[in-house]
Amino acid sequence: MTEAPVLVIGAGVQGLTCGVVLAEAGMRVRVRTAERSRGTTSAVAGAMWSPPMADPPGKTQYWATLSHAEFTALARDPDTGVHLCEGRIASRTRLGEAPEAKLIPDLRHCGPDDLPEGFAEGIRGTVPLIDMPRYLDHLVARFREAGGEIQRSAVRSLAEAVDESSTVVNCSGVGAHELVGDPGVYPVYGQLAVVRNPGVEEYFMEITGAGELISVMPHGDRLLLGGVKYPHDWGPGPRAKVREGILRRCAAFDPRLGDVEVIEDLAGLRPGRQAVRVQLERYSGARVVHDYGHGGNGVALSWGCAYEVADLLADGGSA
Ligand SMILES: Cc1cc2nc3c(=O)[nH]c(=O)nc-3n(C[C@H](O)[C@H](O)[C@H](O)COP(=O)(O)OP(=O)(O)OC[C@H]3O[C@@H](n4cnc5c(N)ncnc54)[C@H](O)[C@@H]3O)c2cc1C
Q1: Which domain holds residue 34?
Q2: pLDDT digits over 197-207, tens only?
Q3: Does any domain span residue 1?
Q4: Model confidence over 256-288: pLDDT tens digits?
Q5: How far apart are CA 183 and CA 239, in angstroms?
Q6: Per-residue pLDDT tens digits for 103-149
Q7: Would residue 231 count as lying in a domain?
Q8: Is residue 158 part of a domain?
Q9: Ligand 1, atom 4: nearest CA belongs to which residue?
Q10: How far is the CA of 169 from the centre of ligand 1 (A)?
C-alpha cells in the first residue's frame, strides 16, 4: 500500500513554507487549510524581516538568521514579492538588545536628527520587506511545482489528521488554540490601512509594549500603514475607529501621509504564545510536528522554522 502524503495543516506562511521545504526535499505533501492563503493572517502582515526578540531566544535567533538568508536571496527576483528596503526601527523608550540586528549589513544607530519627534532610540538599515499576498502566491506556485497538493477543508481534530496521514505538520496559527487545545495560544488583533503610496520609499517600525504603534511599509504603489496589537481580542475587524487612529498617528509622523487614499483595510489575528512551539509529538502512533505560536514574527521566522520541522521529521524516525 502506498503511504499517504505528509499532511500539513494550514496555508499561511508557516504551512506553505513547510510545504515547499518538504516537497522540494522529495516528499509527497498535502496541505489542508480552512481558508485560502490570501485569507489568512499571513496575507495581512506588513511584512518585514526584523530581529524577532521572541522566545525561545536561542532558537528564534537561529530561525531568524536562516530566514534572513532566504529572504535576501529571494529579493533577487522581484516576482517573489520580496525586496530589500532601507528604513528605521525605533522606540520612544529603549530599543532593547536584538543580537540578529547584526545581520543587517548597513546597520547604524540613528542620531538625534534621524529620529522622529518623541522617539528616544533607533536603528537604520536595509532589511527584506515582503509583499505578503504576492509572496504567498509565489509559495503556492513553488509548492505546486514541487508536486504539492492543496485542499480547502478544515481539520476537525488531531485524531482526524492522523487518520489521514501518519506524518502531520501542524501550522494552524491561532487555530491551534482549538485544534490541539493549547490554552497558551491567544489572538493578538492587528489592523493595517493599505493606502496609495504618495512617494514613501523607506520603512518605519515602532517598537513598543503599547497597543497602538506606527508602522509604514512601502510596496511600490501600495503603502501599508499600521497598526495595533490587541491581545486576547478575537475580532472581528477591520474597524473604522482603528483605521482613524492609524491614519492620525501616521499623519503626525510623516506629513505626506496626511491626505492619503485608503484602498483597503486589513485585519488579522497574530498567533500569540509565550514561546514559539516547534516540536515533535507522538500522537496515536503518528508523528505530529507542531509549528505555531509565532506572534508578530511568523514571516521573519518562517524559513528557519520550516527547516527545523524538516530536521525533526528526518531525526524522528518512523511512526
Ligand atoms: C497587522 C499584522 C502585521 C504583521 N507584521 C508582521 C511582520 O512585519 N513580520 C512578521 O514576521 N510577522 C508579522 N505579523 C505576524 C504574522 O502575520 C504571523 O506570525 C504569521 O502570519 C503566522 O503564520 P501562520 O502560518 O502560523 O498562521 P496563519 O497565517 O494564521 O495561517 C494559519 C493557517 O491554518 C489554517 N487553519 C487553522 N485551523 C485549521 C483547521 N482546524 N483546519 C484546517 N486549517 C486550519 C488557517 O486556515 C490558515 O491557513 C503580522 C501580523 C499582523 C496581523
Answers
A1: 6-315
A2: 999 999 999 99
A3: no
A4: 999 999 999 999 999 999 999 999 999 999 999
A5: 27
A6: 999 999 999 999 999 999 999 999 999 999 999 999 999 999 999 99
A7: yes
A8: yes
A9: 45
A10: 15
Ligand 1 centre from 268 Cα, in Å?
8
Show Cβ contacts of residue 76 under 8 Å, excluding neighbours closer than 6 positions.
Answer: none
Q: How confident is the model at residue 319 (pLDDT cuts 50, 70, 90)?
A: very low
Distance 108 CA to ligand 1 centre (A): 31
- Domain containing 143 — which CATH number? 3.50.50.60
Q: Where does the chain have alpha helices with state H?
A: 13-24, 41-44, 57-74, 132-145, 158-164, 176-179, 240-253, 302-315
Q: What is the pLDDT of residues 196-244, one digit of tens each?
A: 999 999 999 999 999 999 999 999 999 999 999 999 999 999 999 999 9
Listed residue (196, 193, 213, 206) closest to 256, CA to CA: 196
Region 82-108: mean pLDDT is 91
Burial label for 162, CB within 10 Å (0-12, 13-18, 19+), is buried
**Residue 256 belongs to some domain of the structure:** yes
Could you tell me which residues are beta bridge partners of residue 149?
Answer: 30
CB-based burial of residue 34 (10 Å sphere; 0-12 exposed, 13-18 middle, 19+ buried)? middle
Task: Quote the ligand 1 centre to 1 CA distance (angstroms).
Answer: 35
Q: Which residues form ligand 1's pocket by a CB distance below 6 Å?
A: 9-15, 32-35, 40-42, 44-48, 154-155, 171-175, 179, 190, 192, 226-227, 268, 270-271, 292, 294-300
Provide the domain count of the chain: 1
Site to substitute for ligand 1 among 178, 225, 229, 294, most atoms within 8 A of C-beta: 294
Three cell numbers, residue 201: 520609499
Pairing of strands 186-196, 262-272: antiparallel
Residue 30: pLDDT over 90: yes
Q: Which of 68, 264, 262, 276 is nearest to 170 (CA)?
A: 276
